[in-house]
Every structure is written in structure tokens, then in C-alpha cells.
């Protein structure tokens, strides 16, 4: 298990939430706990040439007649290494033992909260200490001992043979989970406030003191990676569950990564292995190191306002960088940090692994950073003089939005009342109140339906957030004339503007010494000023340019640099093809205006034939605000097919959706679950895997 494409699926008959999943050691079996307190035993069985998860047994733990539901409400599940027993912690503090695979309750082996308290010193004896079993962990070196953690912080080491407590530990915070060190000499307790405590397990029975208390990494205290013998752990309080699928992939490096704060862009390249992480207001560039290291993280500042007069940032201050060397575990280690000024959210990122360049954008502009020389190449301010809202910061903007909505409601209500007076109408207080309530409901309904019924209209340059950078794109193409191609950077904004910069990247032998230079070459303004969500260059064969280093790794054909190139600009409302280098309009495809369809995500996908390996084609996979997916041909922009995929009311699902380059996709169906789908007949999502 763990290899790309290896997966197994089981579907419960009950429509209930899965609360926990636990593997039975060495048995190709697992146990699931649902929110209706039922347990289910699953086995991997072979059927029609493939292995599948089959439900073998189901079981509900029942208490004595008249007992409250909490007496048997399961909160922790521990499959024992003997493969014959299952320990079930409950809300009442009792731990029940059941046989596998029969699920027969062994009542004589129940670990009661009273039995635990008998072995705890009187100073700590409190019935509420043993309420709700939060965690159960078997000793890694002694199968006759299990660690029991209660929600209020009490932790005990229980001897299964002699039915007694051998050690007790009293934490000061509400417990979340427990983890053993591999040799069993220490364990870590994880707490509700995001802190961690390391506890020694001595050979005698004395009360141990915690070795170290750690607050969450990110409050610039000790890193969890400093604890010997443990893998680094990041507090779940600091993570937002989001998905970003890799867009540059070599070999079988397919992974999904959690997104920290706002954006995570992963590029896993076998030559360089460089990652870029945009965390709210900073850009971190990381490289892969298979050994621990301690070094200073270099930092640079990018002033996107360029000291222009009349602009004043009203949001939060920038984060302070840590001085001196920082120790990092083996893995991806930051080596340079770019601090954006003003410290606004990073809205777009692009990395070119071959040129060693990183482009980043915010609501104020975009910049280019040379991560080899650790030098800022240039910044470009895209802010419109009237766009003061972009300078207020997120909290101020929410207040401004609420204020403007209230004012709009009041204006419309006053106009309704005044028009009623002009008509000579009058009514009692209850009629007026009923009319106002109906107006509020109608107004809200109109607001919800507005995106669906909206007609495509030209937008003003003075609209808010026109300078918001939506997309960045690197391309080696013909920008100045048709005889010479050069590296270039393209940026698209919320106001329908496309900027193109010519880049001069020195050859490899002089790359370390000579600076990268940039000069603006083009600026395109879309007529309707619709937000630009995608930019793409097609080569002389009308094929999208390959990703960086794909040609060098024989993963893609070399682009055709003989024929003329074309530029595809995707806005929320239309697709438009321009010739290069003249940038003259060639053809376009408008989305249906009556439906109010708007592009939310777009990516080039390669669709291979399921019958022969000799044929494949590149098309655009497009997700709209209505939740449907459209496949559009390249370069002629013909609609091939449309699939309903995500409910249009599922805003978070649409916002989280990502495509792979072979026509598959993922989107969140809850904060902790994602749905996988495929648009390609060659790459089906149905798992067909075999386990011996």
C-alpha cells in the first residue's frame, strides 16, 4: 500500500458519518466506528480479479437495562496486537473488551473507571478525572500494557495481566491524543490548546514529571521536530483542510498536500525538488534535503506599492522573521523567504524550476524573485487609484461590505415606502411589517440568484479589486518579434488586464553571476474587464507548451518553435485566442450569458485513448460557478461535452476543486473528505487493485 493508484473502497449501508478507522495488525482487516455508535469489521477479499473491502460483521455496544447512552458511547478504539481483541473506550470512562471477529463482549475483562481510581493517589482522586476515554495506545515493546488517556488530562499505564495501574500522569490541559516513542521509554500527550507534553516512563512507580512542554509551532517557540525520536508534528489548529494537486510532476510523484493558511503550490521535480509555499503574506521557497540541517533562512522584501503617494495600508502588520540559524528535520527545508509589502494575502504563484524563478501576486500587484541568486528581479503595482478597498485589510473589508449591504437595504426600503406614499397607499403597522419582511426575503433571494441570471456587461475600471492578481504564467515564446523567442512572464488581473514581461535569463555558465532582467513588453485590456483566470501559450502545432524540465526528463515532446504561437486568455466570461507576437484577436468563445455561467477553474488536460496508446489530445477542463465541468477543444475552442459535477450551492466544493493533467479531479465534500472524479475513459477512478 502507499503506491500511486492503489486504493480500496467500502461503502456502509448506513448513511452515517465515519468517526474512526483502525487497522487490525497483519490481518488485511480494519474496523470502522460510525456516529451511530456501531462498529463494522471489513476484510480485503478478492473478487473478479481485484481485491475489494467487504463488510464481515457489524456490532453495537449495549449497556445494562436503564443505563444512560454515555455508558456505552464509544470514543476510542484500540485493536490489540494479538489480533484477537478490541479495546473500546467510552464516554463513561469504562473500557470494554470484545473478541474478534465475533464481537463478543468479555465482561470479566472490562477496565472500569473505579478500578483505575483505586490505583491513583488520593490527591488526584476525582470521579470526573476518569470521564470520557480520549485515547488508547498499546505499549510498543510490551503488549501487556496499554496507555489510557482521559479527556481531563489524566493518563495511566494499565497492566493487562495484573489488572492494575503501574504509572499515572496528570496533564494540566484537556487531552486530544497520545503517541509512543518507538522504544517505549517516552510518550507524547497532545492537548486541546495545541500544546504537546513529553513524558518519561520510568521502571519504578514514582510520579513522573513532564520532560518538556511545547506550545504550537508557529507561536515562534520550540519546534516539535526538536523532540528526539519523534516525527515532526504540526498542530491541527494551524492547518486549513484544502487540496492542491501538483501541476509539475515527474514519474509517479502524485501527492495531495494540506494547505497552510491560504495557498500551497507544490512542484515535485526530480532535478531540483523545489517547493513554493505562500502562507498568508509571505512566500517560502523550500528545497529537498534528506538530512537534518541548521541554517539561516535568507529573506527579501517586495514593496508592491513602490512608495507611491496616496496609498496607505490599513491592515495588519507584517510577520517578524526569526533571526539566526534554524534547525530543520530532513525533508523540505525553507532556504529563502519573500515578505510582501503591504502584507496582504498571496493570491497567485508560479514556479519555473529550470529558470529558478518564482512569481507571486497579491491584491496590489505582482513580483518576480530569483531563488538561485536570492534576489528580487522586479515588482509591478496593479492597484487602481480609486481602489482604496484593497488597502483596508480583510477585517476592514468585511465591515465595509456589511455597511454597504445595510445601506443598500435601507435605500431600497425607503424607495419602496416613498413610492407607496406617492400612490396614496396606506396600511396598518402589521401590514407594513409583513411587507418589510417579504421585501427582505425577496431581496436576499435576488442576491442569491444574481450570479445565475446576470448578463455579461462591461465593468468599470473603478470597480474594487481590479488589481487583484488572479493568475501567473511562464512561457518561452515569441513576444517581441516572430524571429526570436525568449522567456516571458504573464500576469492576469481581476480587472481584465494581462501584463507580459520579456525576461533575460543568463545561460547556465553565467547564471550565478549575471542578474535576471525583465522588461514589460505587452499590456492587454479585455473589453468587458472580466477577471482573467487562466493564460496559456500554444506552440506551432497548437499544443500547449510543456511544463519546465518535462522535455529534459523525456516526459514531453519539444515544443514547435518554427510555426507561429498563439495566446489563449481565459476570463470568467469568455475564451479568447490571440496571435503572437502581434497580439491580434483570432477567435473567441463566450459562455452562455443567460445562464450567467462563469469560469472558476481551468486547466489543460491530456486525454488518451482507452483503445490505443497512439492517440491523445489536449483539451481544456473548465469548472464553472454552476458546478458543471466543460471540455473545450484546443485550439478551435469547440465545446465537446458538459458534465454536472458539483452542486452549484456547494461554494466551498467549487472553490477547492483541482484538476490533474490527465483529466482527473478532486474537491472537498466536507472539511475532512474529498471526492475524486475522472473525465477520461482511460483513467478511471474505480480501484482495480489486488492484495495477496
Automatic annotation (TrEMBL):
InterPro entries in UniProt? WD40/YVTN_repeat-like_dom_sf, WD40_repeat_dom_sf, WD40_rpt
Query: What cellular-component terms does GO give this entry?
Result: cortical actin cytoskeleton; plasma membrane
Q: Does the keyword Transferase apply?
A: no
GO BP annotations listed: cortical actin cytoskeleton organization; establishment of spindle orientation; exocytosis; Golgi to plasma membrane transport; regulation of establishment or maintenance of cell polarity; regulation of Notch signaling pathway
Q: Where is the signal peptide?
A: none
Q: Where is this region: Disordered?
A: 413-435
Q: Which keywords does this chain's UniProt record carry?
A: Exocytosis, WD repeat
Recall the GO molecular function terms of this protein's record.
GTPase activator activity; myosin II binding
Query: Which residues form the WD repeats?
Result: 11-52
Give the superkingdom in one word. Answer: Eukaryota
- The UniProt regions of compositional bias labelled Basic residues, in chain numbering, are 413-424
Q: Which family does it belong to?
A: Belongs to the WD repeat L(2)GL family.
This chain belongs to the protein called Lethal(2) giant larvae protein 2
The major lineage groups are: Eukaryota, Metazoa, Chordata, Craniata, Vertebrata
